[in-house]
Amino acid sequence: MILLPLLAIALLVAVHLFSVKLRFLEVIPRSRWLSFAGGVSIALVFFEILPELSRSQEIVTQAVGGVLTLLENHIYIVAAFGLAVFYGVERIVKTSRVNQREAGKEDATGDYAFWLSMSVFSIKNLIVGYLILREPRPVQGLILFVIAIALEFLLTDRGLHEDHKANYERVGRWVLIAAVSCGWVIGYFTEIPRIWLAILSSFLAGAILLTAIKEELPEERQSRFWAFALGLGTYGTLLLLQ
Q1: Per-residue confidence (pLDDT) for residue 99, from 0 to 100
Q2: CA dist list (Å): 51 to 61, 76, 81, 188
Q3: Which residues in 71-92 are b (16+ Cβ under 10 Å) and which e?
Q4: Are 185 and 132 in contact (CB under 8 A)?
Q5: Angle, nearest 10°, between helix axes 111-134 and 173-189?
Q6: Residue 172 DSSP label
Q7: What is the pLDDT of residue 130?
Q8: Distance CA 27, CA 60 (A)
Q9: pLDDT tens-digit readout, 181-231
Q10: How far apart are CA 227 and CA 32, in angstroms?
Q11: CB within 8 Å of 106: residues ≥ 6 apart
């Protein structure tokens, strides 16, 4: 059972390594492949991660007990927190680009925004690397999960490259490669309690949801709805049939 997760990590590393070379994705109207990837990412959240979190809610409620029982939806609060964190970083990144342009510099983020962005996306990659090895899934479920995450990584990489330009190509992608690889290594040597597995999955759901939405919705991207809907419908159907 080690070989398949190892191949999965190798695929995700390859996406980070080579996505910046895919210049055909840098087009307006938006590449149909990126819109398709956005649809798959949304389907992953709503058809797989959130239903699994719903099943985990009872475990979390029993585990925390005490005063926190007043909060009936702990798992979804964590997902909302994950979305809020990534949205906050996104606003800092966009503000940094505006400030850099107004200062007559390149249309890219400053160092603070760049490293803040790399920090939160590294946390996301650590979680992905860990979950690939430690979250219980049948073989076909793992394959579908990794395909969806690979497409989500592709979607994310295009946004990060657009915001950070050369910094991402020189340094950022290597930071994310190291993070997802470290997550896998941590999963190989360590197994965390089920409650924390649920919390990590919840945070990941919020992050993926925000990433997919913010990459698809801006009007200037001229996203392709049919490709987005095709990705959403195709991946959702595959999950329902497994």
Answers
A1: 93
A2: 16, 11, 18, 26
A3: eeebbbebbbebbebbbebbeb
A4: no
A5: 30
A6: I
A7: 94
A8: 44
A9: 999 999 999 988 877 888 888 888 888 888 877 766 554 455 677 788 888
A10: 6
A11: 100, 165
Distance CA 96, CA 200 (A): 29
CA 42 to chain centre: 11
Round to whole Å and give the CA distance between 180 and 125: 5
Q: What confidence score (pLDDT) does residue 153 get?
A: 92
Q: Going along the chain, which residue ranges are E strands?
A: none
Where do the structural domains in the chain lie, given as residue ranges?
45-241
Model confidence, pTM: 0.85
pLDDT of res. 61: 65
Helix axes 225-241, 139-164, angle to 10 degrees: 150
What is the model's pLDDT at position 159? 85
Nearest to 153 by CA among 28, 14, 6, 4: 14
At 180 the pLDDT is 96
Q: Are 197 and 187 in contact (CB under 8 A)?
A: no
Q: Which parts of the chain register pLDDT below 50?
A: 24, 27-28, 67, 70-71, 219-220
Nearest-angstrom CA–CA distance, 198 and 201: 5
